[in-house]
Amino acid sequence: MALVRSELQKLFTTRLWWIMLLVMLLFTGITLAVTIGFAGVEGGQGAPALPGRETLEFQQAAWTAGAGSSIFVMVLGIIMMTGEYRYQTITTTFLTTPRRGRVVTAKLIAGLLVGVLFGLASLLLTAAAVIPAVLIAGGEVALLDGGIPRIMLGVVATSALYALFGIGLGALVRNQIAAIVGAIVWVFVIEALLTAIPALQGVGKFTPSGAAQSLIAVQIDTGFGQADLLPAWAGASVLVAYALVFAVVASLTTVRRDIT
Fold first, then answer.
1. Of 10, 88, 125, 229, which has the fewest Cβ atoms less than 10 A away?
2. Is the four-CA dihedral 73, 77, 83, 89 of positive or negative sign?
3. Following DSSP, what letter does each residue of 37-95 receive, concatenated?
4. What single DSSP character describes residue 200?
5. Residue 42: beta bridge partners?
6. With contact defined as beta carbons under 8 Å apart, do 50 and 61 qualify?
7. Contact 38, 127 (CB under 8 A)
8. Burial letters for 215-243: b for 16+ Cβ neighbours within 10 Å, e otherwise?
9. Taking Cα atoms as reference points, which of 108, 27, 34 lies closest to residue 70?
10. Distance (Å, rounded) from C-alpha 158 to C-alpha 213?
11. What is the mean pLDDT of each run of 10 residues along the chain (260 residues)?
12. What pLDDT score was predicted for residue 49?
């Protein structure tokens, strides 16, 4: 626990965490604004792009807004790991705690906790936007119906596990800029294509983003068809498997590599 506290202190005594939190909340807020603004708007064929704000289906869609912000938690995880090498503090860290595996484990636990906090923050922002929007539209707020608890859990779990992905990637690719750029390209380009193009969804559903989507999936007809996703339990299993792989990668690469 002392090492975990130390890792959390390293993070929370810098401006990095709240800057990333603000950026994540801004991204979530934009997503919510678009979702609320276009609710009930007629599509090209007369069907609404999203259900009206008074419906349960709208609430299901809106509560997923925070899931897309997990990339920022991943970037934070990358910086938590690569920052040690960039600023040459890793030597002092390992001199203080020679058992490198314990240091990596502490970073992973700290990353999980921070990921949970970021996920909860996104849910609070979502609640602050969605609940008034539903009430103003004359709808009934449903927090325990329609799979919304599963969606909330999926948002928090995705945020926490993406922090592990970032720490693992940061251990594998020590260059901070390269790791961050690689993560952004993977999430916003490669995974986006694999999960959006129907012919590639058979592969895309097994990516971290595809697995995360299965946890927060809502069946809403937007005119673009339904995505080919894993069952929720399978998506959760895939995410946990990825997290374990990244944790092992972080441990092995850090323990075996020269720190200079």
1. 88
2. positive
3. HTTT-B-TTSSBSS--TTSHHHHHHHTTGGGGGHHHHHHHHHHHHHHHHHTT-HHHHHH
4. G
5. 48
6. yes
7. no
8. bbbbeeeeeeeebebbebeebbebbeebb
9. 27
10. 9
11. 86 91 95 91 64 90 88 92 80 72 85 95 96 94 88 92 88 88 91 82 85 73 59 85 82 66
12. 63
Tokens standing for residue 230: 């894993």
For 27, the token pair is 């991204």
Calpha distance 235→139 (Å, rounded)? 31
Nearest CA among 126, 106, 81 for reference residue 253: 81
Rounded alpha-carbon distances, angstroms, from residue 17 to 23, 118, 119, 161:
10, 10, 13, 17
Q: Quote the pLDDT of residue 69.
A: 83
Backbone angles phi, psi at 48, to 5 degrees: -65, 140
The dihedral over CA atoms of 108, 113, 115, 117, expressed in degrees to the nearest 10, equals -170
Rounded Cα distance between 123 and 118, Å, is: 9
Residue 28 in contact with residue 126, Cβ under 8 Å? Answer: yes
Q: Would you state the structure tokens that stand for residue 155, as one six-digit string?
A: 């948002």
Paired tokens of 192: 């986006």
pLDDT at position 218: 62
Segment holding 220, helix H or strand E: none
